[in-house]
Design goal:
- Keywords: Membrane, Transmembrane, Transmembrane helix.
- With 73 residues, the chain is mainly α.
- It has a domain of 43 residues.
- Helix content is 70%, strand content 5%.
- It is built from 2 helices and 2 strands; from the N terminus they run E-H-E-H.
- The longest helix has 42 residues.
- The radius of gyration is 23 Å and the shape is rod-shaped.
Length: 73
């Protein structure tokens, strides 16, 4: 498991108060803001993993399909 440090800059506030802070351009962190960042991070990691799998598996799948086609002909 990989651990990461998260730098929190600004006040830690509830979701309703975060709108006030955002309106006035003040730095703040809220539960929904953290959840959004975590979701974006997970989506990015998933995309990177899928690209890696595609690059890794694609040659193997192509070889398999050539072998199957050769065997069936």
């Amino acid at each position: 498991m990989m651990t990461k440090k998260v730098m929190i800059k600004g006040d830690i506030v509830d979701d309703q108060t975060a709108g006030f802070y955002q309106f006035f351009g003040m730095p703040a962190v809220s539960p929904s803001g953290v959840a959004d960042i975590l979701m974006m991070t997970m989506m990015t990691m998933t995309t990177v993993m899928m690209k890696h799998l595609k690059l890794t598996l694609l040659p193997m799948v192509a070889t398999f399909l050539r072998l199957v086609r050769f065997t069936l002909c």
